[in-house]
Amino acid sequence: MAERSTAAVDVADNSGDKPLTAKADKATTDGVTESIDTADTAEQSTSGTGGGERKASEPSIATPELHSGHKLARRYRLEECVTRLDGFSSWRAVDEKLRRAVGVHLLPADHARARSVLAAARSSALLGDPRFVQVLDAVEENDLVYVVHEWLPDATELTALLALGPLEAHDAYQMVTQVSQAMAAAHREGLAHLRLTPSAVLRTSTGQYRIRGLAVAAALRGITSEKPQRTDTEAIGALLYAVLTQRWPYESDAYGLHGLPKGVGLIAPDQVRAGIHRGLSELAMRALVNDGATASRQEPPCTTPDELVKAIGEMPRIRPPEPAFTAPPEYQRTTYQQGTYGRPAAGPGPSVNQPIQPPPPPLQGRTGKALKWAVSALLIAALGLGSWQLADALLQHDKGGSNETGNTRTTDSGNDGDKPKAPLPIKIQGAQEYAPDGKPQDADGVASTYDGKSSTFWRSKSYLGGPELAPFKKGVGIVYDLGSEKDVSTASIALRFSGDHTTIALYATDSMSSGRGVTDMKQIATTTTKGTTADLKAKAPVKTRYVVLWLTAAPYAAGDGYSDSGFKQGITDVKFAG
């Protein structure tokens, strides 16, 4: 079914390069050419494909004189300039139509790189892979060329993470795995990055890594390469080396990191810092240009992202560290002394040696005998009653401790200890869109599904056919991070639109990545509703950290400011329990 929406799709440069004014000479190295400025650190290599070669550049073109508040296409309002160099500038801006932050690259239409920038931006937008910061618009208008891309306010540059220290083995493993898989997918579509630096890799609040500037960053700076796959693979190796050691793997300092000592050459990460994971150290050496030498053995070098992905797959999976155990508070003894409960307080009283008074003499005479017989009769009656009650209790025990009427069993006991416990709420720690086809619906609205506000919501685009979205769209969804593995048994989902009908399923998955289809996941529960509430209950609790909410049918709703009328749905609030 055809999608109908005014929203465009892609992710953003959060901060771009540092602003600068002075320009240095141009630098080159075997196969890669780049215009170098004083803010960009030269990317050097010990051999062949990773560095830059100095060449005379084309005459510099003045960056258009724009200012905060300037509006492009009566829609994108410029807010803050984050880069200005070599004839182009990069801005943080606001898309007033969709009321969200975006990034914008600007350069004159007669700039020598304007045509290549437009071509790179349009090619990147066609990829539509959510692992990359997406291009939203690429336009030539009023003697200007501008590229609009996503802005991720909750993401952190790898540069900032490295300033705090090296990453743990599991985090480094996740970074190299996700970046390698994303770049392998891009190269299969004929797209290269060529400027994969720590500032080009972002980690979101959910722990996912996103890559910005695919093809566009290189086009803006005039970077080309005769061996693009080798160039990007070496860049991934340098990133892995940096996150393991907090050093740049060449002699020059770069990106706020110290380089290696002069004259020692390229040494393995586990020789730079103690305690580094051996497999990751060897992987970094295989990706870098070093004639295939690794820390401890000879392995063929990885020269393409696909080869790097294969090498990662052959490694044992690195699991996250176990959470630190917090000892319970020490048991506090009470002042109660065993055997003293109920005894009279010490103080004046009869001495322990005081003679015990003898019992009263037995009853004598006819009255005494009558009382004896009466007491005996009462005791016999009590024993009989007690025997009957004991027998009845035993009989009930043989029947399972319950009264049975037909097929229904009711428990006589008033003890609530055997009743099933009510599910406990599970706090959602993060979420992002689940879009295995690479076409998100409303990436910025995901957080609104668990912010506790009924007035905010995530919404899908509208579709011409329905309620079933298939075969035109398999489904739309969101993946939630519960922080750690939890037993998920129920879910309550508040919906924006009612009607015939909404179908939702929950699945357990092993990561936030959109790479897997729901057919490969374990289904927790599913339901169909005509109202604005969907309650799902699993047959048995399912232990998982990540839960995919997958919507495959939606009711018809009128048009709004986000999309036209059609079959669509919005999610206001999601709650899990287990």
Can you offer a commentary on this structure?
With 578 residues, this protein is α+β, with helices and mostly antiparallel strands. The protein folds into 3 domains: 9-150, 2-Layer Sandwich (Phosphorylase Kinase, domain 1), CATH 3.30.200.20; 156-313, Transferase(Phosphotransferase) domain 1 (Transferase(Phosphotransferase), domain 1, Orthogonal Bundle), CATH 1.10.510.10; 425-577, Sandwich (Jelly Rolls), CATH 2.60.120. The protein is 21% helix and 26% strand. It has 9 helices and 26 strands. Strands 16, 17, 18, 20, 21, 22, 23 and 26 form an 8-stranded antiparallel sheet that branches. Strand 5 and strand 6 form a beta hairpin. Helix 3 (169-188) packs antiparallel against helix 5 (228-245) and helix 5 runs antiparallel to helix 7 (278-287). The protein is globular. The chain starts with a strand and ends with a strand.
In short:
Helix content is 21%, strand content 26%.
Q: Low-confidence spans: pLDDT under 50, at least 5 residues?
A: 1-60, 292-296, 334-354, 399-414
In terms of DSSP E residues, the strand content is 25-35%
Share of residues in helices: 10-25%
Rg, please? 36 Å
Number of extended strands = 26
- Named CATH architecture of the largest domain: Orthogonal Bundle
The overall average pLDDT, rounded, is 78
Number of helical elements: 9
CATH superfamily membership of the largest domain, which one? Transferase(Phosphotransferase) domain 1
Cα separation of the termini: 36 Å
Q: Provide the domain count.
A: 3
Mass-distribution shape: globular
Say what the CATH topology of the largest domain is. Transferase(Phosphotransferase), domain 1
- The CATH C-level name of the largest domain is Mainly Alpha
- The secondary structure category is alpha+beta
- Subunit arrangement of the protein: single chain
Described by strand count, sense and barrel closure, the largest sheet is: 8 strands, antiparallel
